[in-house]
Amino acid sequence: MIRLFVAIQLPETVRERLASLCTGVPGARWTPAENMHLTLRFIGEVGVADAGDMDHALTRVQAPGFTLAFNRVDSFGSKGKARAIWAGVSSNPALEHLHDKIESALVRAGLPPEGRKFVPHVTLARLKSVTPARAADYLEGHGPIVSEPVAVREFTLFSSFLASSGAIHTVEAVYPLDGD
Hints:
Helix content is 26%, strand content 41%. The chain has four helices and ten strands. A hairpin with a 2-residue loop joins strand 9 (154-163) and strand 10 (166-176).
């Protein structure tokens, strides 16, 4: 079995900028800069044959290249308790289009449809023992952010191995987007 996800790799300068936000919340498990990416679709554990089917489906995705920019820091959670802090991107129809094409291709390849709404983001931290007040203070202090535009010319299939030291991501395949 192999654990897979589809994502946009980020340039080192953007990962470093986002990593500079990763401080100030005791108890947070911050994402290392080298693991920062924008997930387009989590696939999960699949067999080797199914992984080949997913790869084949992704080679057929056609979408134009585009740019994106990060514009905010927010959190996921419920009942006032944040479980993750993330950096989000400005509304982007081209990114939504790419996501939809990838979703359709993977469903045709046999994956069940994703039940959650697509919220394009980069996870900055996972929170377990962080008080709601501490998380709220962080978000208030890191409100809107401005990033340089990021040119997206490809998307990537990653495998992920969960180790005690954290996730280890490996590039399995890269798929180019259509030129402008």
